[in-house]
Structures are given as structure tokens and as C-alpha cells.
Specification:
195 residues; alpha/beta; elongated
């Protein structure tokens, strides 16, 4: 049975992968996440998810290496992690009362066979009307500075929304588990298979 590696330092992605009850290792790849000129959100997350998984592939022979990357898209603009509280507050003020699309790329590199698969998932969030005070309190309490979209759905961020729309809510957290399970099965690692 192939062994699994998660190419991410995100504790949120690790918590999601833990749900599959498959033993795995993880390491944080160091890559440049700067978008290229004219790059679509889908092309960007494909490139970055594959770059993350590929960065670890040489160090993990005979493994399946999972990479994932996510961006928020609002009014045609690609938004990554805010990095500071002022940017997080400004993003949430812009999102208030609007729909924001999240695009999450997923890559699986099979180092045994020298093959890879890359895909992406969309997930939309409709923000409720937010007051300046709510936004400030949210950013202060949750400090979502390392999260695309300036919130954490797995935490207090759920209080920001009017509704969520998509096939797999795990996509919004950063690791589309339904699609990942399909890729793992194709590669010979079935989460529901015999140990």
C-alpha cells in the first residue's frame, strides 16, 4: 500500500486529513506563491498545489504526496492571505453583503510511478451585512492573517456568513476531501480499504 505525505504546514489541512484515518507524514514546502501576470485563479492554484507536492517528491520516494493551495476571488481580483489585521479588516469590509468565490487546487504526486494528478474545486461564500465593529472584533479575536479570504470557516468565521454554496465544505477550509478520496482510490490507497 502506498504511503501518504501532506505537503503543507497548515494545521487546518492536517486536521482535515486526520479525518481519513490514514497514517501520513507532513512537511511544509517553501515555494513562491506570487501569481504570474494574467494567470487565472484556477491556473494559479493548479500551479501552486503541484509545486508544493513536487517540492517534497524527491525526499519521499514510494509515497503519494498531497499538495493544496487556495485563493479567494472577489470582483475579478485574486486575494491570498491578508498578512496583517488592517488588510483582513479591509477585505471583510469589501466582502460584506457580497459573494466571494474560493478556488482550491489539489495535486497528488505518485513518486512510485512518476505521475501526478491536479484538479480544483470552487466554493462560494455569501457574506451577511457586517458592521465595522463586528469586523474589528472578529479580526481581533480570530487573527485570520494566514487564511485566504481573511477568515476561518472552521472557527468563529462561520458567524460572518449568510450562506455557503458548494459540493464539499472541506474545500473552503483548504483541502477538498471528497476529491482527494477519489484521487487516493485511483492511486491505490482507499480510505475505506482493508488495512
Amino acid at each position: 500500500m502506498p504511503r501518504l505525505v501532506l505537503a503543507s504546514g497548515s494545521r487546518w489541512r492536517r486536521q482535515l486529513l486526520d479525518r481519513l484515518e490514514i497514517p501520513y507524514a507532513w512537511a511544509s514546502p517553501d515555494i513562491d506563491e506570487t501569481p504570474r501576470a494574467g494567470e487565472s485563479p484556477e491556473a494559479l492554484v493548479h500551479r501552486l498545489a503541484l509545486a508544493k507536492a513536487s517540492r517534497l517528491a524527491d525526499d519521499w520516494p514510494d509515497h503519494l504526496v498531497v499538495g493544496s493551495d487556495q485563493v479567494a476571488v472577489f470582483e475579478g481580483e485574486i486575494l491570498g492571505k491578508p498578512g496583517d489585521a488592517a488588510t483582513a479588516r479591509a477585505n471583510l469590509a469589501r466582502f460584506s453583503g457580497h459573494r466571494v468565490r474560493f478556488v482550491t487546487g489539489l495535486a497528488l504526486v505518485d513518486t512510485r510511478r512518476g505521475q501526478h494528478r491536479v484538479c480544483h474545486e470552487h466554493y462560494d461564500v455569501v457574506f451577511r451585512e457586517l458592521s465595522e465593529g463586528e469586523i474589528a472584533r472578529y479580526v481581533e479575536r480570530e487573527q485570520p492573517l494566514d487564511s485566504a479570504g481573511s477568515f476561518r470557516m472552521e472557527g468563529l468565521g462561520i458567524a460572518l456568513f449568510e450562506k455557503l454554496e458548494g459540493d464539499d465544505p472541506n474545500t473552503l477550509i483548504g483541502l477538498p476531501l471528497i476529491r482527494l478520496c477519489a484521487l487516493l482510490r485511483e492511486a491505490g490507497l482507499d480510505p475505506l480499504g482493508e488495512p
